[in-house]
Design goal:
The chain is mainly beta and 87 residues long. The chain is built from 2 helices and 6 strands. A 6-stranded antiparallel β-sheet has the order 4-3-2-1-5-6.
Length: 87
């Protein structure tokens, strides 16, 4: 089985993916991405939705059974542009 690359995750649909949010200023938490804009993710955790800025955060996505670390600044595009621009 092929190892999942960072690029594979960056080019995929992130809504619906399990994610762990890592912040330099707050405790990390896990949830599911329910919406995405150019600068933010909306993540459902513990029955509530939390808006998280992409910039200054790291995201561990679980993609095809593997954890992949992405810097928020690497994916700071509108979803439709991110899929096209990441080569």
């Amino acid at each position: 089985m092929k190892k999942v690359s960072k690029r594979d995750v960056m080019r995929s649909e992130l809504i619906g993916q399990d994610v762990e949010v890592i912040s330099p200023h707050e405790a990390s938490f896990t949830g599911v991405v329910v919406d995405e804009t150019k600068n933010t993710f909306t993540i459902r955790r513990l029955g509530r939705e939390v808006m998280v800025p992409k910039d200054h955060h790291e995201f561990h996505f679980t993609y095809q059974g593997e954890k992949v670390l992405l810097q928020g600044s690497e994916i700071q595009y509108r979803p439709e542009d991110r899929i096209k621009k990441i080569r």
